[in-house]
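Forwarding these from the shared drive since the link keeps breaking.
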Amino acid sequence: MTAKTVVSFDEVADLAGKDLGFSEWREITQEQVNLFADATDDHQWIHTDPEKAASGPFGAPIAHGFLTLSLLIPMWGELFDVSDVKTKVNYGLDKVRFTSPVKVGARVRMTVTITEVSEVKGNGLHLVADATIEIEGEERPAVVARFLNRFYK
């Protein structure tokens, strides 16, 4: 894992173009997939039935794309923080793509580059980050997304 970047509000504007490095690897477990299926009421067999999924199109059960995407939040927290703000907001996502399935048992990690920082009303900053969730040993990433954040002093 790359060392976490922690900056003050006044330093955020200088981060455009900064590569934050890589998060820790995280293994995707069947228990995690099943819990996500319960939370989202998406029990499609390619996720929750390991026996049937073994003979399916991916040769194994796979994580929900949105489960993999949701890991962006804890991995982001491993890589970046702003120390002296009152409010931190996950503002949204742009250009999200699920480019490769993640098989149960695979490990994923995220790399992030901050691409833009701009001011917003209310003494805030809008930060745009390009995030890629990689699958260990695979050429294609699992998820590519533009992650939007706001920080208010």
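-- next protein --
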Amino acid sequence: MATLLHIDSSVFPAEESASRAVTEAFRKHWEEQHPQGTAVYHDLAAEPVPHITADAHLAGFVPASAHTPGQAAAFAERVRLIEELERADAILIGAPMYNYTIPSTLKAWLDNVILMGRTAGENPSAKGTPVTVVASRGGSYAPGTPREGYEYVQNYLRAVLADALGLDVEFIVPELTMATKNPAMAELVPLYEASRDRAFQAAAARARQLAERVAA
């Protein structure tokens, strides 16, 4: 049975969150293809994982037999999250842009699962696992736009997910999500609606594609 690791990090509920709406659509199509499968879900806004501590960090560089009680406890939480990553057949991440980058809760999850010599390094333990990132944003930071240089979501996540963890990354980018809320962006509403529609279509297509890939 296929396992989907689904992570949301938006601080807003589903009815107000562009990233949650699209990850929900992806998961719906995924579960239609894998009705007997397993979905491991983390809502990092409701239940954040611990931010990395000195004990959790240092424990990754010494044998378990040499761990202090504090290191052992902190590292156990890292291992639990790492094992979820390694067991997943596909990964789905909602990553809205807050102040030009990802939510701190998502950064905390990444800090826990990136472990040199295991998930990162020459032979990453989850290498090749497909990961779909829904990278929503209130404006547009696409190439050629005035704020292109402020894009620290896709650039950063590509570096850590693809380069460090060896995952197979694809982004879905619903943009201009503030157009319906900010009067100054009213003329951009049609572009937002088109972006939203493309995101839902891409989520459905990606879910079906990965379902076929996992079943093959």
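The helical segments are 18-33, 54-58, 69-87, 104-113, 154-164, 189-215. The chain is about 40% helix and 10% strand.

- D.
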